[in-house]
Amino acid sequence: MPPSSRPEPPPCHAMGAHCRGLRVILRVSTLEDGPGSADHESTWLMGHTERITFLSDLWEDDGDLYVAAELQVPCRFLSEAMEGRPARCEAHGFTGRSAGPRPERAPRQLGSDRFRIVDGGHLVSRALPPMSPPPRSLPIRENLNPCATAACRTADNRRGAACCRDLQIEIMCTSRERRLEALVRARRSPLLCKISRESPFSLSAEMISACGFLLEDGISCGLHGRTRSDGRPAKPDLCSQWPAGGEITHPGCVLAVK
């Protein structure tokens, strides 16, 4: 990256929790398409728990749903503590503790067909029995699941199920919140990258944070083939549709136009 394109260091005054992670408000979904659609989108976003800690219940404001969260992505200027040496800010020269221990990852698969999903606008535990006979993990083309052996990879070059390992987020940050914007833009890439101003009120970004509904093979989805009590699919609808060719963003995706 050319030096002129590197973000300026945020205007910090000391080491602190903001060096290791960042507390923000995320826009989760809109209620324009009804609460059912919002449940699906909220389940999808709040399923990505690898590097996102959700700190609050969902709340509604002017037709949109929001949640408080901590993005567990360190600042690019943080030099981690080593034996005999404290953590250091390479931008300002501060030394000291950058944060306490990271919160434990909140599970989304609870065992015995129980999962944590968003239902009725709330993150709740639900029994989600599989349909009989269970379908395959993804929509099927010619009786095969091409994603099972795909060479797709996320921006950190980890291979497999890339679309379940990264996501687009919208961070509420007005154009006047300059320190917050500087802290967002200073996060370590590619864990948080492709940051742009979505509107005068928010920033968009791509984040690597794997979905908590992935099974042990790292590809299959634990919600696939399961239903809610009202008959709706448990799996978010946006995870059950093949993307259009123009939406392919991961190198090695088998659906990319050749």
Descriptive overview:
With 258 residues, this protein is mainly beta. The protein has one domain (15-247). The chain is built from two helices and 13 strands. A hairpin with a 7-residue loop joins strand 5 (78-79) and strand 6. The model has no long low-confidence stretch (mean pLDDT 87).
What is the CA-atom radius of gyration, in angstroms?
A: 20 Å
* Structural class by SSE content: mainly beta
Low-confidence stretches: none
Number of strands: 13
Q: What is the string of helix and strand elements?
A: EHEEEEEEEEEEHEE
What does the main sheet amount to? 4 strands, antiparallel
Principal-axes geometry comes out as globular
Distance between the termini: 29 Å
Helix content: under 10%
Strand percentage lies at 25-35%
Mean pLDDT score = 87
**Helix count?**
2
Q: What is the domain total for the residues?
A: 1
Short structural description:
With 258 residues, this protein is mostly beta strands.
Write the layout of secondary structure elements.
Layout: E1 22-30, H1 35-45, E2 52-54, E3 59-61, E4 64-71, E5 78-79, E6 87-89, E7 95-96, E8 109-111, E9 114-119, E10 122-127, E11 166-172, H2 178-185, E12 192-199, E13 202-208
Antiparallel strand pairs: 1-4, 2-4, 3-4, 5-6, 6-7, 8-9, 9-10, 11-13, 12-13
List keywords for this structure.
globular; 258 residues; single chain; mainly beta
